[in-house]
Write a structure and sequence with these properties.
This protein has one helix and 26 strands. By secondary structure, it is mainly beta. Strand 21 and strand 22 form a beta hairpin.
Length: about 300
């Protein structure tokens, strides 16, 4: 080969080496969760955009996990129908979990999910663990759901039927419980620093305690004995008692001795107050008994001790 030709080839190789974009190890990936926003995992690397596949079809940002029955990729939603075992929402996905028949979902874990919507029929679901992820749970029928455990995520439970739901607990997240359609529709409700909300309709719909910490505590009770006892923490306490009979209030015992503000709406023949209301009263908290008229001591519009400023 002539020296001039060899020199030209070396020059071309050098230019090519200097102008070719090399892929950094930083962009290697095995799944989409390892890529930054705006990049997709393809052929082992995080690349910009979605691009086109060789056959001309638009490449999906990620594949549907094998644990999902179907997926909606644009909304990153995974649909799962329980078939009798434990159900786990795959990491980073929004899951719609359906458990229609008895024993169809032994347990449900959403601890690695983006969010979970769970629907359970009678006797269908065991315990549901959400931890820091938002969960909306609907439990219809007797013993539809076990306990629902949340930490920093906001959780809601709609419970219809006798013993439809187990206990619901939150730490810094907010917990909302709606109960009716049978005796003991809801179990215990407890919150640490998040807000606690409970709505109970029907006799003994919520016979178990509601316990609040530093967040706001809100309870609405309709019909005789609809609610069990409520213990408000240092946050604002709002309790409404509607319906019932004399000596048989819709509400259970109310304790708000440490609340920054306490309001129990009750009184009169149609909406009697609970027999026991432990409220603020100088010089220290005392048990308050309803006199049969509206405006009991656990009412900030009547008792100045209940009008402290809430944070």
């Amino acid at each position: 080969m002539r020296p001039a030709l060899v020199g030209a080839l070396v020059l071309v190789a050098a230019v090519w080496a200097c102008t070719t974009e090399r892929v950094s190890d930083h962009f290697q990936c095995s799944d989409q969760s390892q890529c930054d926003s705006g990049r997709v995992c393809r052929d082992g690397y995080c690349v910009i955009g979605t691009g086109d596949t060789p056959d001309g079809r638009l490449a999906d940002a990620r594949e549907c996990p094998s644990t999902c029955d179907s997926c909606d990729l644009p909304s990153n939603t995974c649909t799962i129908t329980g078939d009798g075992g434990a159900v786990t929402c795959p990491t980073g996905w929004n899951c719609d979990i359906n458990c229609p028949t008895q024993g169809s979902c032994e347990s449900i874990s959403c601890i690695a999910a983006q969010s979970c919507d769970v629907t359970c029929g009678a006797g269908a679901c065991g315990d549901i663990t959400c931890n820091g992820k938002p969960c909306d749970v609907e439990c219809s029928g007797a013993n539809a759901c076990g306990d629902i455990d949340c930490t920093t995520g906001n959780c809601t439970a709609m419970c219809s039927g006798a013993n439809a739901c187990g206990d619901l607990s939150c730490t810094s997240g907010d917990c909302t419980q709606t109960c009716g359609g049978g005796t003991g529709a809801c179990g215990d409700l407890s919150c640490t620093t998040g807000d606690c909300n409970r709505t109970c309709t029907g006799t003994s719909a919520c016979p178990q305690p509601m316990t609040c910490g530093s967040g706001r505590c809100t309870e609405s009770c309709t019909n005789q004995g609809a609610c069990g006892p409520v213990s408000c923490g240092t946050g604002r306490c709002d309790v409404t008692c509607m319906g019932g009979l004399i000596g048989a209030s819709a509400c259970g015992a109310v304790t708000c001795t440490n609340s920054c503000r306490c309001d129990v709406a009750c009184g009169g023949l149609n909406d009697p107050c609970p027999t026991t209301m432990m409220c603020k009263d100088p010089p220290s908290a005392v048990y308050c008994s309803d006199t049969g008229s509206a405006g009991g001591r656990c009412d900030s519009t009547v008792n100045n001790q209940c009008q402290q400023n809430c944070p």
